[in-house]
Amino acid sequence: MMRITPPEKDIELIQEFERGKIKHVLFDFDGTISRLREGWQRIMAPVCVEMICGDRQPTPAIIEEVDRMIDETTGIQTIFQMQRLEQMVREHGLVPEDKVRTPLEYKQVYNDRLMEPVNARIAEIKAGEKNVEDFLIRGVRRFLDLISQKEVVLYVFSGTDRDDVRNEAKCLGVDRYFKEIWGALPSVEEYSKEKVIRNIIAEHGLQGPQVLAIGDGPVELRNVKDAGGIALGVCSDEKRGTGWDESKRPRLLRAGADLLIPDFGEADALIDYLFP
């Protein structure tokens, strides 16, 4: 693996791509820009295990299966994860049929638990107890400032519910950078990251390297790569907000990442590379 900048720069080139043509940039939100939902995996995993096992003690195999499902589906709409959860509940057969819930009901249980820490963090910002920067990935505001000066259109496309992601982007003061902020809608037919990418490419008559996806999950990267675009993987340590989370690297590589970064601490060098 070669680096595109001096060794002290945290930017890794995985494979060459055509530079200088980017016109539209699609950002994931959670873990790429925002840290408000840091720890969501630690909330989703127990919910899934609880729903699968009911009153039974979970086995190591079930815990591992849940962790694998979450890792593979990071970035996808929550409802799709909950559809998979329903399948797992039925496959294991540990819960009586009348206790099996719908994907929407599972999503409600998960969201209710997740929003407790999210709302607490937003309250800390509003009370002045925490700064907005405490809940942003390092350097992302500088990166957004720089890339918004280019002749590009910026979007957020998130697996989080649309109203929530818009509210959280506004709370963090980053909503102004984006032409559109997409998020999950009640009907899965109404929204998917793949559909957003297809529509943008068709509407603007774009060629592959004119589209860049930036995210810490495999879904958005894989969708853009399938369309011939450029994929920038963010191996962010969401707990600290800076540095590498090496556990993200394998899934981003499998998704076809062209570049890997831990955060946006090298925003200037990254912009110089993407826009030679």
Write structural notes for this entry:
There is one protein chain. By secondary structure, the chain is α/β, with parallel strands linked by helices. It folds into 2 domains: 173 residues, 3-Layer(aba) Sandwich (Rossmann fold); 87 residues, no CATH class. Helix content is 43%, strand content 13%. The chain has an 8-stranded mixed β-sheet. The chain is globular, with a radius of gyration of 19 Å.
Radius of gyration: 19 Å
What portion of the residues fall into strands of 2 or more residues?
A: 5-15%
Helical amount among residues, as a percent range? 40-55%
What is the CATH T-level topology of the largest domain? Rossmann fold
Q: Tell me the distance between the termini.
A: 21 Å
**DSSP summary: helix tally:** 10
CATH class of the largest domain: Alpha Beta
**Tally of individual domains:** 2
Number of strands: 8
CATH homologous group name of the largest domain: HAD superfamily/HAD-like
CATH architecture term of the largest domain:
3-Layer(aba) Sandwich
In spatial order, strands of the major sheet run 1-2-8-7-6-3-4-5
Low-confidence region ranges: 1-8
Query: What's the helix-strand series?
Result: EEEHHHHHEHEHEHEHEH
Largest sheet: 8 strands, mixed
